[in-house]
Specification:
By secondary structure, the protein is of the alpha+beta class. It has one domain: Beta-Lactamase, CATH 3.30.450. Helix content is about 45%, strand content about 20%. It is built from four helices and five strands. A five-stranded antiparallel beta sheet has the order 2-1-5-4-3, sandwiched between helices. Strand 3 and strand 4 form a beta hairpin. The longest helix has 23 residues. The chain is globular. The two termini are about 20 Å apart. About 20% of the residues are buried.
Length: about 140
């Protein structure tokens, strides 16, 4: 019975995250790439904007996800003192990387052009997360 309930809840959560994912590229045309993955590095959803070429090989992309996971694990080590992280922004010479935890097990990872308005993108991504998790078909986590 517990496995059926867990499977049902996992399915609902997956549908909620898919609804977030389906809207991410619509936030801003300067978003290059979006993915949702779990803390084990398993990619649930992933997309490159049409016409945008990846700067990393598939292996480098997987390594980048692992680095993001490790960074969130490190941030969480002090969360009992300073609170949970809402998002992280890293600006590189060729792109910006935004990561937002969706819950304790899943992360939304967005890359943008370097001249993107990251504050607006972050605000809209947080709004998507909040709306999806607190909508009638969603559930607060």
């Amino acid at each position: 019975m517990i496995n059926k309930v867990y499977g049902f809840l996992s399915c609902i959560i997956c549908m909620i995250y898919k609804s977030i994912f389906d809207k991410v590229l619509g936030i801003d045309p300067k978003i290059r790439f979006a993915t949702i993955f779990d803390m084990n590095g398993k990619v649930l959803f992933s997309v490159h904007r049409e016409g945008v070429q990846s700067l990393l090989s598939p292996e480098e992309s997987q390594r980048s996800l692992q680095l993001a996971i490790n960074a969130w694990i490190s941030r969480n080590e002090v969360s009992d003192k300073i609170g949970k992280g809402k998002y992280a922004l890293v600006e590189y010479e060729k792109l910006k990387r935004i990561t937002l935890p969706l819950d304790s097990e899943n992360i939304l990872y967005i890359t943008t052009d370097v001249d993107a308005d990251h504050a607006s993108i972050i605000t809209k991504a947080l709004r998507l997360k909040y709306d999806a998790l607190h909508s009638p078909e969603g559930m607060p986590l």
